[in-house]
Amino acid sequence: MAIKQSKGERAFTIFNYLFLGAFALICLFPFVHVIAQSLSSQRAIVSGEVLFLPIETTFLAYKEVLMDQHFLKAFSISVLRTVVGTFVNVFFTCLMAYPLSKTYIKGRGLILFMVVFTMLFSGGMIPTYLVVRETGLLNSFWAYIIPTMISAFNLIIVKNFFQSIPAELEESAKMDGASNIGILFKIVIPLSMPVIATIGLFHAVFHWNSFFDAVLYINDRSLYPLQVYLRELIQFDQSEINLRDNFEQQLLANESLKAAALISSTLPILIVYPFLQKYFVKGVMLGSVKG
Amino acid sequence: MQNGTTIEANKPKLDIKTDIKPKKKSALLKYWDLYLLMIPGILFFLIYKYVPMWGIVIAFQDYSVFAGVAGSEWVGFKHFARMFQADEFYSIFSNTLLISLYKLFWGFPAPIIVALMLNEIRHMLYKRSVQTIIYMPHFLSWVIVGGIMINLLNPSTGIVNTFIQFLGFEPIYFIADDSWFRTVLVASDLWKSVGWGTILYLAALAGIDPQLYEAAKVDGANKWQQTWHITLPSLLPTIVILFILQMGNILEVGFEQVFILLNPLVYNVGDVFETYVYRVGVTQGQFSYTTAVGLFKSVIALIMVVLANKIAKKLGQNGLW
């Protein structure tokens, strides 16, 4: 069809392209700037010369960050948490979602209601903290894993997906003598890979990024994840602000170091992100609009 | 057409019923293995979601860690009375509400508008590139985003202040300035979440029947009229559901974000319920008092969801339930 645009429409189209392009640049710009800083010399940063390109390129900051024992330790805790946590999330979500996808299971309505209710009301920070404490998870690696074992929202999404799998497939497997558990692992889960990959990605990002439960439940420095390490590096507390003038020189000396640490901790996500994008977009659409 | 589809849809359904439906008495026995699968999940929800709800009773006690819930003394509404008498309660309440309303005002319509604009882009490569870039900030932690913000807004080396000085003005210490702190919160939240927020709306837009637009074109509707009479009404159910969910979060301003950017210089404009509960509850051990504060917040949130849902139904929309 030949498209005839009025003047107004053409003006809108041009504006539209420019606006969205500008918005994308605003989203991208802070990264580029921080990357440029991480590769620049102190002098260039302090004198405000660094914009989008590194000035007086040096890899010193990266060398220093990657040689830092604390950084490496925190990095490995974060990797461990992400791997174990994501596996636990996906595994137990599937286990619970499968029976709930069967309309003939008794008590299903009640259990579903209980799950959904937790999305509307919660005990709050302190009672949850006390339960974690009572269950002996304070200062334990499992405080990262167990209290976030299942997300109600993702459980519902997976349950809905399981429900959409044709019952005939399972029936024929049953004819061949497969057990319910066998059907779950050999038929239902392989057929549900799109949705499982999506919630897996979301849980992985959650674990990699989460910061607050470490602050809340963990005092043992050897268990601190990357986000807490970063927080301590970039944090400015009262003393820093009050003594700003005296400390200014020291603080400035850190600028490229901070930038390098920020980029090193973001890199894993930025690297896998483009490959996963098509999956999560599809996955979000699968579950959420219909609820 | 309609009759045909209903008959077709009914047929397999009947088969399933006769094939799988169990004899009444033995559901639990017959499907014992399925029930077994649910046990870890049910235990998780009971212990880490429902026991804390029950733990709210400590708001009515002088909770002592050593005596536990059973042994602590009941004190009625003492902690609530203290809360309503404390000056800081009102500043925390208004901070939370204001920050939340600002975020709602800027952050709720923004993804709808961006999604509508993206939807008009015909050049697929351009559209996909923009999408890829604007989703990205969602995947960063608040620690990272906070770090980037602190870096950009730094009064002596930050690029924003370098620019302000270039224009001949005094540098602004955004993050430690009462009049700027909330703006920083709202802006960084927008930066992080607008792109991601468009996904649901784009999904809804993709679901609109193109025949509607063709019919409208035949009737001579221009782009604006098509947007107003077809696109927006089609998006309305999605908008309503997301709005109801937002109302439930009206006192939930995003703990990590505020916690990471907050500093003592801006407590009077930036301290919110959750940062206060953390600081006074966990670090100072005042469990009962802060549980009362948290309960107040949760109850308001629940009331807001129920109200928003009612209103949505009154207006003829499908609510959450």
Automatic annotation (TrEMBL), chain A:
It is a multi-pass membrane protein. It is found in: Cell membrane. Residues 75-276 form the ABC transmembrane type-1 domain. Gene3D superfamilies: MetI-like. Keywords: Cell membrane, Membrane, Transmembrane, Transmembrane helix, Transport. The chain crosses the membrane at residues 14-32, 74-98, 110-129, 141-162, 183-206, 257-276. The keyword Membrane applies. The keyword Transport applies. One of its GO terms (cellular component) is plasma membrane. It comes from the Bacteria. One of its GO terms (biological process) is transmembrane transport. CDD domains: TM_PBP2 (cd06261). Pfam families: BPD_transp_1. Belongs to the binding-protein-dependent transport system permease family. This is ABC transporter permease. It comes from Sutcliffiella cohnii.
